[in-house]
Specification:
The chain has a six-stranded parallel sheet with strand order 3-2-1-4-5-6, with helices on both faces. The relative contact order is 0.17. It has eight helices and six strands; from the N terminus they run E-H-H-H-H-H-E-H-E-H-E-E-E-H. The chain is an alpha/beta fold and about 230 residues long.
């Protein structure tokens, strides 16, 4: 095993995803309320996010797909929207930290792997901009480690659970699946990595299991047990 891919939300950063996303929409729609009614804003965000998740065009980044869908729905020019999104993710987005429960175990585990020479990839679903992902990594206490790749919507072309998302990561880091481990808490989004020969470790601390996954993890347990699985003291 040479590289370890980590999911972020619910894996390295404990949270109630439903509550977090509810508050996220509340804060973001408030930011845009002067130009887009809150209900329309939320519906448009969900539609544009859905377009990213279902996109299979390799020539389009997730950001491009998002804006192509979102702009017509809100009927405002991208030049007006982009600065508002940038400001939101730089400032108001920080308010959402209170809806997460950072655990020092995450930093300990990632630090141990880094110290043992594992290549690190932050494999969070790239439906957010890099700025937002780095903010959540700071909350989790894992932002200072030598991440070789952080998947964000600016430069990713697919989303989980599309296997092409994982294939793109493998191509970027130049490794075959059998030399990589995916660590995540979602039986669908994360275990689909198995289809590319990637080993999987299912984190059970904040498990998401909708009962529709056909994939079985190679190992499952609490996040701290990952060190035992990799024989790291």
């Amino acid at each position: 095993m040479e590289a370890v891919l980590f999911d972020l939300d619910g894996t390295l950063l404990p949270m109630d995803m439903k509550e977090f996303m509810s508050q996220y929409f509340k804060v973001l729609t408030k930011k845009f309320k002067e130009i887009v009614p809150p209900d329309q804003m939320k519906k448009s965000l969900l539609a544009a996010t859905g377009a990213m998740i279902h996109n299979s065009r390799p020539g389009k980044t997730n950001q491009e797909v998002f804006m192509e869908t979102f702009v017509p729905l809100v009927n405002r020019p991208a030049a007006e929207l982009t600065p508002l999104f940038d400001y939101f993710y730089t400032h108001e987005y920080k308010e959402l930290r209170s809806y997460t429960t950072p655990d020092p175990v995450a930093g300990k585990v990632v630090g141990k792997l880094a110290g043992h020479g594992y290549r690190l990839v932050l494999a969070t679903n790239p439906v957010f901009p890099y700025k937002a992902i780095m903010e959540r990594m700071r909350w989790a206490g894992v932002d200072s480690f030598p991440w070789e790749l952080v998947t964000a919507y600016e430069d990713s072309h697919y989303c989980k659970p599309n296997p092409c998302y994982y294939d793109e990561i493998l191509r970027k880091i130049g490794l075959p699946g059998h030399r990589v481990l995916m660590v995540g808490n979602d039986t669908t989004m994360d275990l689909i990595a198995s289809s590319l020969g990637i080993k999987t470790f299912l984190v059970t601390d904040y498990l998401i299991d909708k009962g529709d996954s056909t994939w079985q993890p190679d190992f499952k347990g609490r996040l701290h047990e990952l060190l035992n699985y990799l024989n790291i003291d």
